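Hello,

Our lab assistant flagged a job as stuck in the queue for most of the afternoon. It eventually completed. Since we weren't sure the result was trustworthy after the delay, we are filing this so someone can double-check. Below is the sequence as submitted and the structure that was eventually returned. Let us know if re-running is recommended.
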Amino acid sequence: MNRSTFWNVMFYVFVVFIVLQAVFPFYYAIITSFKTGSQIFSITYLPEIPTDREHWSHYFDNYYNVLFSGNGSFLRNIWNSVWVSTWTVAVALCLGTTAAFALARVRFRGRKLFLMTILAVSMFPQVAVLAGLFETVQSLGIYNTDWSLIFSYTIFTLPFTVWILTTFMRELPVELEEAAIVDGASPWVIITRIFLPLMWPALVTTGLLAFIAAWNEYLYALTFTASSNENRTVPVGIALLSGSSDHEIPWGPIMAASVIVTLPLIGLVLIFQRKIIAGLTAGGVKG
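-- returned structure --
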């Protein structure tokens, strides 16, 4: 074996190791989600498929209990997460696109400083501004509502969205904008009719990242919807599953709930994977 072949083999071994390390926790969560009782504490690396009808009837008990017990409260949590995450993405992309156009195409004094300030906002840890944001939410009268989460999530997803879209918009040819101006197009027409069709990869990438951030957020969801289950999202719903038992932690239902809330994200990534790759690599190579 020559040196190049050896390093190729080592490279693929390293890749397989990384993939296994990333995928194994989710794989083991799937296996655990089908276990009940004392089976939870037995370590198995392959799923135990029932061989008779009686065991098959109880194979999906954890999923059934999570989805339909408690008057369907977890289904309500899923709907709240979809609602909040979708609105967060819509508001962040709408504001981010218009802000990116101003920062990328309009020349004004302090533009670079303003862009750096926007990026610096995203560096603050969420817990550092929790008290001030809590007072703001209460003063706006949106405490314990979905809008409190949409408002707070937009604050933390908007800087990243503006930064990515500004970088992408700078790479678009200036000739397109100049030709539109000659034809009498307004800035709004330039954004919606010319730039938006070209920015789909960046919009999908930033939108998906904003959706994942809103879908997985726990601290604000727990703080701003603590008094009612009507507006809680799935991270809080999963956390409350661990406190619903007086004796032992229900690991089976928790794993089943974790699998349920992870599947939509996997589906979105698989659907938009080509747009995501194009968005992440856009601007990396100049012709």
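-- support follow-up --
The delay was a queue issue, not a problem with the job. The result is valid. The CA atoms of residues 200 and 275 lie 7 Å apart. The domain at 71-281 is CATH 1.10.3720.10 (MetI-like fold).
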